[in-house]
Amino acid sequence: MAPTPPPPHVLIFPFPAQGHVNAMLKLTELLLPAGLNITFLISAKDHRSLSGYANIHTRLNSFPGFQFHVIQGLYEGPLDSAEKLTIMFDCMSEKTTLLLRKLILDSPVTTCVIADGIMDFVLDAVEGTGVPVFSFRTISGCAFWAYFSIPDLINSGELPFQGTNMDELIVNVKGMEGFLRRRDLPSFCRSGLSNRTLQQVSSISRRALDAHAIILNTFDDLEGRIVSHIQKHCSNIYTIGPLHAHLKSRSLNKSISSNSLFEEDKTCIGWLDQQPPKSVLYVSFGSIATLTRDQLMEFWYGLVNSKKRFLWVIRKDLVSKDDDKLPSELENGTKERGYLVGWAPQEDVLAHPALGAFLTHNGWNSTLESIVAGIPMVSWPFFADQQINSRFVEAVWKLGIDMKDTCDRTTVERIVNEVMEVRKDEFTESAKRMAKLAMESVSEGGTSYSNLDRLIQDIKTMGVQHEDE
Ligand code: UDP
Asked: Where do the coiled-coil regions begin and end (predicted)?
C-alpha cells in the first residue's frame, strides 16, 4: 500500500502590523482544521506581544501541524506614519528574502506561500522554487482596485491633481465614477508623483498579477461589483471574508479570538454593561493613526458637547505630545458620560448591546468588524486605504457619515448627533441589513464559505501534485 502523503504545508507571512497580523492569523485558524500544516512567520516583537496579550498559544497549540517561525532582528520602533511603515518594509525585504528561500528549500514540502500582498519581494524570493504564492491583501477590494488604478489615473492626467478642488470627481477608477472624489483617493495621492509610497503602492498592486491568486478579506454582497473589475486582470480571486465572522461561523467555540498586540483593558465591558441599549459611541483610530494635540481637543469637545455617552481608545502613542492638563469642562463631561481606555477588546465592544455607533478611522479590520456587528459609523480616515473605505461607507453602503478632512468640534458634535439621533433609524436599518448579508456569506452555502472551501481544496490539490513530481 502506498504511504499516505503528508498534509500540505503552507507558509503564512504577514506584514508585522496589528491589522495585517490579525487578519492572517484568522485565516490560519480557518485553514488549520482542514488538515493543513502551517508555519506562520512572525516578528519577534509581535510574537512577544501575542504571547503576552492574546490567548493565541492556547488556541493554536491544539494543532500539531502549526508552528510559529520567529524572525529576529527586525525594526521594532513605532509604525505611526507612512515613513515608518516604509522603514519596516525595507527592513522586512532585506532580512526575510533569504530566510524565506531557505525555509522553502530546507523544508521537505512547502506546498505554497500565502504572503501579505504588500510584500511583493516575496514573489522574488520564491522565484524559481516552483512554489506558488497566494497574495493576501488585508485591505478592502475597493482600496486595492484604487491602488491598482493609479497608473491609469496618471496616464489620463487625473494624477497629480491640477488645481485645489478636492471635491472634483475622479473618472478613471472603473466602477467608482460618479461618487469618487479626489479627497477619497488614498492619502498619498495628494502629494506629487515622486511620493515614494505612491510609487511603491502602485507597483506592488500591479505585481499581485504575478502571484498564483489573490485572496481578499471581503464578501461579494459588499464588494462583488468592484471585485469583478479586478477579476478582469486576475481571474483567480478568493473573497473569503469577513474573516473574523467566518472563523466564528465555522468554529464550535463561538468566543472571540483575540489577536491583540496590545494589552486589552476589559474594564470597559463592565462600564458598557451599565449603559442603556444603543446609547454609546465607541471611538477608536486603530493601531497606527496619530492625532495632533489640537485634533485631540477638537474631538474631545465635539464628543462632550454632543452629550452622547462615549468609550474612547486613547493609545499611549495616539498623540505625539500630550502632557497638557485637560480643561475642567472636558474632565467633567468625560466623568459624566465617557470612559477612556488604552486599548479595548474591540470585537467584544462592538458586539455589546450598549453600542450605538462607531467613530472610526476605517482601517479595514475595524470597518468589517463594525459591519458584522451592525453598527453605523462616523468616519474619520487617517491615511492610505482608509480614505476610500470611508467614502464607500457613506456613498455606497450607506452605513454612516464620512467626516474626512475635518474634525472641528462643531462638525464632530453635529455628525455624531446626526448618526446617533437624527438619522439613527435609517443607519441602523442599513447596518442591520449589511450585517445579515455578511453572516450569510460566511454561513454554509454563502459565497465566502464556498470560496474558502475552494481555496482549501486548491491547496490540497497542489500538495498532491507536489508529491507526484
Ligand atoms: N483593535 C483592538 N482594540 C482597540 C483598537 C483596535 O482590538 O482598542 C483592533 C481592531 O479590532 C482591529 C485592529 O485592531 O482588528 C485594527 O486594525 P484596522 O485594520 O482597523 O486598523 P489599523 O490598526 O491597521 O490602522
From this structure: none
Catalytic residue among 46, 116, 120, 402: 116
| CA pair distance 183, 171, nearest whole angstrom | 13
pTM above the 0.90 mark? yes
Please say whether the beta carbons of 134 and 122 come within 8 A: no
Could you tell me if 19 and 138 are in contact, meaning their C-beta atoms sit under 8 angstroms apart?
yes
Residue closest to 211 by CA, chosen among 90, 109, 118: 118
Distance CA 447, CA 451 (A): 6
* Average pLDDT value for residue range 403-416: 98
Question: Has 116 been annotated as catalytic?
Answer: yes
Residue showing cell 454632543: 306
339 lines ligand 1 (CB under 6 A): no
Q: Is the CB of 364 under 6 A from ligand 1?
A: yes
In short, whether 16's Cβ falls inside 6 Å of ligand 1 is: no
What are the helix and strand counts (H, E) for the chain? 19, 13
Distance 203 CA to ligand 1 centre (A): 26
Give the CA-trace dihedral at 206, 116, 447, 253, to 10 degrees: -170
DSSP secondary structure string for all residues of 164-179 = S-TTPBP-SSTT-TTT
Decide the pairing of beta strands 112-116 and 66-71.
unpaired
Q: Can you list the domains of the chain with their CATH numbers?
A: 9-144+191-258+442-468 (3.40.50.2000), 267-438 (3.40.50.2000)
Strand partners, 10: 38, 112
